[in-house]
Amino acid sequence: MAALVKGVGCAVTRPLLSVVQRWGLDARRWVRALRRRPVKVLFPSGKMEERKPGPKKQAWKAAADASPGKLPPKQSLQMTQSQTPSTWEESGLRYDKASPGDKRLSSAVTIVKSRSFREKQGKILLEGRRLIADALKAGAVPKTFFFSRLEYIKELPFDKLKGVSLIKVKFEDLKNWSDVVKPQGIMGIFARPDHVKMKYPEVQLRHSLPLLLICDNLRDPGNLGTILRSAAGVGCSKVLLTKGCVDAWEPKVLRAGMGAHFQVPIINNLDWESVATYLPNDTRVYVADNCGLYAQSQMSCKDSDHSRGSARQRKYKQEEGLQTEASEDWLPELEVQSYDLDWTETPAAVVVGGETHGVSLESLQLAESTGGKRLLIPVVPGVESLNSAMAASILLFEGKRQLQARVEHFSRGRTYH
């Protein structure tokens, strides 16, 4: 009988041991399968803790679920000391580690690199630590960060990363989707910024001038980025982009702008009827001119073959069948003025056209209705006219010089009296 009981006991014990061992093995496999969940915690001191739920932690979790009103003593004490974690030591930084074949990076970058998808999804792509830091400082809303090294995330302000998806990927994957020669190892997907909600730097607001820039059908990303950089350097109050311009949030424009997008308000994709609503009262609109060889004679650009805007108008008239001399009367009559003569006595807006088609007829009509003129930058005869970025920079900094000279003259007059 004892032998029989002993045999039964052995028969029962062996299957139980087998089940326990098998359960532990399955649990470990289940933990390894959770690749898209936070698997590591990074603290500011550089310490990194790897957390893998074991049988004890699972048993503790089950007990907590069974009695939610009772918490372990350590957790209860920790929550009392710090109800609102504000430092990395208190709450840590959680991130996902992308597994091989993870398509989250490719899907996100594909969407934001297409203008139609950018406008539909309301997202943009920023690459590089400096550009991302400028965007966060200006109040841009981040959605996702892809990075290759943890140090790049540690450089960003912790309070800006709450609720942001952080994904660590291999540098080779970032390099494959990067548009720069030497990628910096971090990309950010942001909500498309709204100029009304942005917080521009205080120093930029203090140096803002009654000077606006209107970009008319600019299609070269490098030129537009350079123009935006000049506008921010001058202190323009706004930059208006008409329909037909390249998207200001295209990656190439962002790189050429060097952070200017977060220093000056940019209003994108406007029709000419909307442009007038963004101009302050008493604003005069001036059109950048490139008559070149006809500077000394001050001839009207309407009769000059060197005006791209006029060439566009003549082409339009030919397509519409307007060949009579009387049809010339509908062209706006704008006086030509040298760029270095005073044109900032009232708030001014400068229109710069694209190099292919020049300024549009609508810009000339707006300048005529506001009492504006054509601004001529003379060049040596036989030399090709300046490109859009150079012309815009010259005009904007000349406008700034005139405004500063007026302020100094007014200050000297007050001191004298």
TrEMBL record:
Q: Where is the composition biased (Polar residues)?
A: 75-89
Picking any one GO biological process from the record gives: methylation
Query: GO cellular component terms?
Result: cytoplasm
Note down the stretches annotated as region Disordered: 45-101, 301-325
Presence of keyword Nuclease: no
Ranges of biased composition (kind: Basic and acidic residues): 91-101
- Name by which UniProt lists this protein: rRNA methyltransferase 3, mitochondrial
